[in-house]
Structure formats: C-alpha cells, structure tokens
C-alpha cells in the first residue's frame, strides 16, 4: 500500500578529502556540482534529476553515511507519515526548512538498524541538467565520466531487519525481494516505494549503522562496461564487476571513492508492482544471488563497510 513516499531524495556521504571526493563523484561518476555552502558541503545531482541535488558530500574524520532522505508527495503527507513513525515508538525530530539549502523541513529518525533516515516534501526544482523542459534534446553533450543519470538507492548493513521491515511497511514500501536463512530468518531486505526493484536495501550484520554503498544509474550494459574502462584508466580501486546480480537482475560494477566509501553504477533490473509476490532467495545460495555469473561471494563485498 502506497502512503506518499515518492522516491529516494538525497544521501549525505562523509568524505576525508573534499577535493579528491569531488574528482570521484563529478569527474569519474559524472554527477553535476550544483552548489556549496558555508559548512563546506558540496551538493551534486545526476543529470536527469529534477530536484536541485541528491548527493551531499561533507568532509569528516571518518567515512560513511550520515543520513538518507526520501521525498514525499506533499507537506500534509510528511506530517502524517511522521505521526505513523512515532506510533512505532520511534522518536522523530523536525529539522527546520533551510538547514539544507533550498530544502524544506525534514522529519528525521533512527531506524532499528541504527541508520538515520529523513522524510521531506519540498526542495527547489532546477529541472534536468543541460536540457530544456520544452522540446528537450536526448542528452546534454558536455557530461563527464560515467554520465550517471541519477542517485538510485543505498545498501546498508545492520542488525534488526525485522524492525526495519515494520518501519518501511508503515512508510508504504513493498518488500520486492528477500534472503532467508535455513531457519526462515531474514538475512536481506530489498524495499521499494516505486516500480524499481529496490529504493533501499539492508543486509543482516551484527553492527548497527554500517554503509555499504550508494548506487547511481546508467542506461545500458555498454555504459557499465565503459565505466569499468574508466575505473582502470583512473586507477580507481575496484571491488568487483562488471557482472550481473541474481537479486534484482541488475548489471553492475562496484568500486571505491578515495575515502573508502563504496560506489556502484548499474543498469537494468527487474520491476515491481504492489501485487507482485516477494521473491525469495535462500541464504545458502547467496553467492548466486549477489554475483549471478561467478556464483561466489567476494569477501571484500561483505566486509568492506564504512
């Protein structure tokens, strides 16, 4: 049942060196720098995104994710969803408009896995970058690097997946795919508020609040292969790929920013409607679920977290 969360809106990522981070996210991945503020934060977006920004970089002493935000359809829905979250016994803090530039008030809370999420309804819209809203061309001709189209999702590691499932059900997300261990316990959740196979995902982990990756969408498998070439050309640390997932069926490559945060670019993937049955993978087949071609887990994929 949908309750008014439209899509992933933004993610704030901690980086150790802003200049090196900008090279990674702008020059390599191809995001567009839209703004900087007096706190040193840098605001980026993919060229197809209509809101002013979707990625916030902030310099810090350790890498990781500060928070992930989801955009709601309107301010009334924002209040209604905040009330629903409070009914779960989760504290919700209202952050006033302007705390993030060009963004309205935000309702922020900590999920059972320890990750910070927020909801908001208002952000300045600057339109797709480099093309008009009237008779638009196919794409801008001066894009950089991998030419990522949008911020797509995050994968996060934490302990209380059942608690997160209850929370995101209240927010109107559907459970598109899951991984179950032999006892029937959930080892992974892939949750969606759209037609995409996942807008946020969680993998069971004994520590709370661990960041696995932020993902950016490309249009074709050929562009994923080109991204692999750029990773090699720039001596960027590679995690794994190009390859295909069994989970979600996306075609993917993983690599690291200079601070150790993992990035993904991918294309394809399955689609989801609310009447679809949840797809289940067995934990003993997790290698095939994550890396469909090799059917073997990359140990770094499971343990390199920020």
From TrEMBL:
It is an enzyme of class 1 (oxidoreductase). The keyword Oxidoreductase applies. PROSITE patterns: EXTRADIOL_DIOXYGENAS (PS00082), VOC (PS51819). It catalyses: catechol + O2 = (2Z,4E)-2-hydroxy-6-oxohexa-2,4-dienoate + H(+). Its cofactor is Fe(2+). Residues 7-122, 150-268 form the VOC domain. Its EC number is 1.13.11.2. Keywords: Aromatic hydrocarbons catabolism, Dioxygenase, Iron, Metal-binding, Oxidoreductase, Repeat. InterPro entries: Catechol_2-3_dOase (IPR017624), Fosfomycin_Res_Enzymes (IPR051332), Glyas_Bleomycin-R_OHBP_Dase (IPR029068), Glyas_Fos-R_dOase_dom (IPR004360), VOC_core (IPR037523), Xdiol_ring_cleave_dOase_1/2 (IPR000486), XylE-like_N (IPR054560). Pfam families: Diox-like_N, Glyoxalase. The keyword Chloroplast does not apply. NCBIfam families: catechol_2_3. Homotetramer. Belongs to the extradiol ring-cleavage dioxygenase family. PANTHER family: GLYOXALASE_BLEOMYCIN RESISTANCE PROTEIN_DIOXYGENASE, LYASE, PUTATIVE-RELATED-RELATED. This is Metapyrocatechase. The lineage of its organism: Bacteria, Pseudomonadati, Pseudomonadota, Gammaproteobacteria, Oceanospirillales.
């Amino acid at each position: 049942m949908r309750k008014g969360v439209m899509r992933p809106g933004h993610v704030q990522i901690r980086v150790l060196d802003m200049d090196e981070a900008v090279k990674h996210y702008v020059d390599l991945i191809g995001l567009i720098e839209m703004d900087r503020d007096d706190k040193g934060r840098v605001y980026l977006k993919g060229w197809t995104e209509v809101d002013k920004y979707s990625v916030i970089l902030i310099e810090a002493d350790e890498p990781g994710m500060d928070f992930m935000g989801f955009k709601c359809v309107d301010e009334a829905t924002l209040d209604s969803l905040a009330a629903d979250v409070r009914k779960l016994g989760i504290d919700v803090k209202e952050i006033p408009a302007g705390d993030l530039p060009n963004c309205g008030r935000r309702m922020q809370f900590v999920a059972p896995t320890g990750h910070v999420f927020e909801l908001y309804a208002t952000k300045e819209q600057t339109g797709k970058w480099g093309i008009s809203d009237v008779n638009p061309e196919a794409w801008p001709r001066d894009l950089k690097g991998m030419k990522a189209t949008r911020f797509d999702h995050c994968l996060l590691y934490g302990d209380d997946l059942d608690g997160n499932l209850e929370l995101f059900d209240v927010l109107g997300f559907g459970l598109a795919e899951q991984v179950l261990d032999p006892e029937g316990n959930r080892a992974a959740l892939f949750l969606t508020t759209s037609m995409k196979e996942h807008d946020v995902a969680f993998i069971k982990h004994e520590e709370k609040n661990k960041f696995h990756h932020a993902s950016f969408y490309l249009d074709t498998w050929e562009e994923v292969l080109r991204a692999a070439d750029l990773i090699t050309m720039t001596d960027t640390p590679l995690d794994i790929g190009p390859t295909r997932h069994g989970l979600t069926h996306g075609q993917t490559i993983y690599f690291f920013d200079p601070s150790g945060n993992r990035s993904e670019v991918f294309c394809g993937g399955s689609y989801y409607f609310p009447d679809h049955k949840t797809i289940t993978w067995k934990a003993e087949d997790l290698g095939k679920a994550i890396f469909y071609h090799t059917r073997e887990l990359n140990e770094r994929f499971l343990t390199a977290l920020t």
